[in-house]
Amino acid sequence: MRAARRPDGKARARRAERPVMKPDPGQWLDRLVRLSSRPGVSLAMVAAIALVDYTIPQQELAFLPRALVDEPCHLATALIVLGALTRWRGRQPSRPFSLAMLSASLLIDLDHLPLEFGSAVLTAGTPRPYTHALWVVGVLASVAGIAGRRARARDGAARAVSTIAAGAACGVGAHFLRDVATAPIALWWPGSSAGMQLPYLWYLAA
To answer: Rounded to an integer, what distance in angstroms lies between the CA atom of residue 38 and that of residue 112?
Structure first.
């Protein structure tokens, strides 16, 4: 019986030169968006949101417990909108767009922190912070449009800014979609400080 041949130096060198496949951290995002684009999954998230909202009196909770209940519902709302956008386009948005959208749908609530620390600098005269208004969506959309025009001249940085700003605008818009159905919000500030609220069932139907 012949002994197994040992790989020579050249064979070992070729093996060492083979590229090591590193895990792609963006794959989880692609899978999440793809999963959210399935109608059955979207309906399941709608049902979960309704169950949480009808069983937990969020407005009676302190800030941190309320955030732990409300923020997952905001993220689920953004995923539902992102899934609908994916189905409408026939393909997934880019990773930067999706990440910016999901992040913005949560980060916009950081404007509540000054009030929790005793300052009304962002909330004087309005039911929610001044940045909980449509002007924020307008600013982000304008940045996306302006940068998009520059991106046509093959400006890579402008293309990235346009994509991220567009994603953030959609994320903030998805956040307001839930907010306007759960408590009054001054969407038209600074034009009006009056709070408005839509029927909750409109939110679920949307």
So the answer is: 33
